[in-house]
Specification:
CATH class of the largest domain: Alpha Beta
CATH architecture of the largest domain: 3-Layer(aba) Sandwich
Helix content: 40-55%
Strand order of the largest sheet: 3-2-1-4-5-6-7
Strand content: 5-15%
Structural class: alpha/beta
């Protein structure tokens, strides 16, 4: 069958799709990775077939000028139950997110993506939960359609709350910015908004079940398999560390898209300097430029793939990004997440704490003393490692991307 994969034009949204796209390819299906032109080289670098459409978004420059957005209420999707958010607050979230987030990402590619789908006629569309262009494309050619999550399903759960609260609101206050936008952009292709269009027939959820948000949406489990781009298993990683190894990584998105990190790598490394541990600082060259002289217990590395590093680590300190979080989960590594509140970072951090496998702190609370104290907790309390191992085992019991291919084949056949 023909399968179209569609994500937002960000590496962090594309990479979670690569293992399933390769599983589909290996099973003999015809796969195309449709995206904005800026991601073409990234896609071809995975060995998959890129299908560039439309134009590129210009959000990164705007993000650098508005770094505070990551902590504003409308960007925080972690508060999403009817007991946590009221109608004015959740309506304001959609009123801001549609014109300033969803539309700028999707509008440059919607028309060409839908036209490509009508021409190529894929049997299945696998899309990023925020790639509504992929949803319009699927409906425009009557393809089966699933979402592949890179987060907890905060968008699906929030939508349920939105509809429930809107039904209770006075008629004059009811509005639906997301549906209005979808209806406008889908009209040239005969597409109008409904809940199946927004969520697909199924949602592929890579979180272990105990960490998932409860929703009524049909979902399928699929084990997270990390893809980090180019990867080299360095010689120093082939031998067990002589001391407890702690990874520090702050990801790439904040540096590249938001103009810098929200916590200080230098302060974190300084806080850990007195400990008898090996700290591996997996940082971008731009991040390392600010460090100065490194403490004696720090190994600074550039370009190391986390799935080659984290199996040897006793703890990881990070910014909350999905790739780091999920790679630590499947390798049973206790986590210290120092995050903003954008998307689901707070919810995932809190759920990790509830599971006993990590500690969450908002970046505004971060001090060297906090980092030192929490790192020692992760290293000294065996409960964190035991909880992390339980989550790893739960993940390992989930179907692999290869297993999921047959399930998706059946979904398409039934349609």
């Amino acid at each position: 069958m023909r399968v179209l994969f569609a994500s937002l034009a960000e590496r962090s949204h594309l990479y979670p799709m690569v293992p399933l796209a390769w599983a589909m390819t290996a099973a003999g299906h015809e796969v195309r990775m449709v995206n904005a032109p800026a991601l073409t080289d990234t896609i071809t670098g995975t060995g998959l077939v890129a299908a560039p459409v439309g134009g590129d978004h210009g959000l990164h420059e705007a993000m650098k000028m508005a770094r505070e957005v990551q902590d504003q209420d409308f960007a925080n999707w972690s508060w999403l139950g009817p007991e946590e958010v009221d109608w004015p607050a959740i309506r304001a979230r959609y009123e801001s997110s549609v014109p300033y987030g969803f539309a700028p990402y999707n509008d440059p590619v919607i028309d060409d993506m839908a036209a490509l789908a009508q021409s190529w006629r894929p049997d299945l569309v696998v899309r990023d939960p925020l790639c509504y262009a992929g949803a319009i494309a699927a409906r425009a050619c009557d393809a089966a359609h699933v979402r592949l999550l890179w987060s907890a399903d905060v968008y699906g759960r929030a939508r349920q709350t939105y509809l429930d609260l809107m039904a209770q609101a006075p008629p004059e206050e009811r509005s639906d910015p997301l549906a209005d936008w979808i209806n406008e952009r889908g009209a040239p292709f005969g597409v109008s908004c409904d809940e199946e269009l927004l969520h697909g027939q199924y949602t592929l959820d890579p979180l272990p079940p105990s960490l998932r948000l409860p929703t009524s949406l049909p979902s399928l489990s699929m084990r997270y398999v990390p893809y980090n781009g180019d990867a080299v298993w360095s010689e120093w990683l082939r031998e067990p560390p002589k001391r407890p190894r702690v990874c520090l990584t702050l990801g790439t998105t904040n540096t590249e898209a938001y103009g810098g990190d929200y916590v200080s790598a230098a302060d974190i490394l300084g806080a850990l300097a007195p400990l008898d541990i090996e700290v591996v600082a997996a940082l971008l060259p731009q991040q390392r430029e600010t460090l100065g002289d490194l403490p004696a217990n720090v190994r600074a590395v550039d370009g190391v793939a986390l799935h080659t590093l984290l199996p040897s680590c006793s703890a990881v300190i990070h910014h909350g990004g999905w790739g780091t979080y999920a790679t630590a989960l499947i390798n049973a590594v206790p986590q210290l997440a120092l995050c903003t509140k954008v998307v689901d970072l707070e919810w995932r951090g809190r759920s990790l704490e509830r599971a006993g496998a990590g500690i969450y702190a908002h970046h505004s609370e971060v001090t060297p003393d906090l980092v030192l104290r929490h790192t020692l907790q992760l290293l000294d309390d065996p409960g964190f490692a035991s909880a992390a191992q339980r989550l790893r085992d739960e993940s390992a019991a989930m179907p692999s991307p290869n297993d999921t291919v047959a399930t998706l084949e059946q979904l398409v056949a039934e349609r």
